[in-house]
Amino acid sequence: MRDYKIVVLGAGGVGKSCLTVQFVQGLYIDVYDPTIEDSYTKEIEVDGRACNLEILDTAGLAQFTAMRELYIKSGQGFILVYSVTDQSSLDELLQIREQVLRIKEATNVPMVLVGNKCDLTNERELTPEDGIEVSRRWNKVPFYEASAMFKMNVEDAFVDVVRQIIRKEAQS
Ligand code: GDP
Ligand code: MG
């Protein structure tokens, strides 16, 4: 079975860990510790193909570290997460994307943009159009509004990035 290395990136508190745990374990666990960085594995089938996903749930993106460079290097697909309740978390993704493209030395890196916490209607700072706008600027990177809490679009976002990796490999 092929391995697919996926890295979940984004500002602290946007829901990277909740999304990852919801995807891997099918549970919403709210144990907020912004410093915990962990990796998970999950086997899924994508278009009839058995895939072993290795998912790295990152933390502490505030400053650049050699460590981060290392896991971006080894990652094949990236889930870039912001929170629809936090404009600055979307701003932070611009730099993160630049960093990924620079380290991967490519423009067509398998990637999805995820606006999490879409269940928090009253706390929104960003509309779906804001995400669509960024996706357009990013070469039409697939965009999902998601809720880790309500398991909305969680699986879709992970499967999308795996499909992109498969497609990219088929081309090379
Ligand atoms: P991380 O720092 O990006 O890993 O963020 P966490 O996954 O730890 O989530 C931070 C906090 O955001 C959690 O304690 C949850 O309370 C909240 N959270 C995460 N995902 C959601 C979601 O989909 N909906 C809501 N309402 N809250 C969420
Ligand atoms: Mg976390």
Automatic annotation (TrEMBL):
<protein>
    <recommendedName>
        <fullName>Ras-related protein RSR1</fullName>
        <ecNumber>3.6.5.2</ecNumber>
    </recommendedName>
</protein>
<dbReference type="GO" id="GO:0005525">
    <property type="term" value="F:GTP binding"/>
</dbReference>
<keyword id="KW-0547">Nucleotide-binding</keyword>
<keyword id="KW-0449">Lipoprotein</keyword>
<keyword id="KW-0472">Membrane</keyword>
<dbReference type="GO" id="GO:0007165">
    <property type="term" value="P:signal transduction"/>
</dbReference>
<keyword id="KW-1003">Cell membrane</keyword>
<keyword id="KW-0636">Prenylation</keyword>
<keyword id="KW-0342">GTP-binding</keyword>
<keyword id="KW-0378">Hydrolase</keyword>
<comment type="similarity">
    <text>Belongs to the small GTPase superfamily. Ras family.</text>
</comment>
<dbReference type="GO" id="GO:2000114">
    <property type="term" value="P:regulation of establishment of cell polarity"/>
</dbReference>
<dbReference type="GO" id="GO:0003925">
    <property type="term" value="F:G protein activity"/>
</dbReference>
<dbReference type="GO" id="GO:0005886">
    <property type="term" value="C:plasma membrane"/>
</dbReference>
<keyword id="KW-0488">Methylation</keyword>
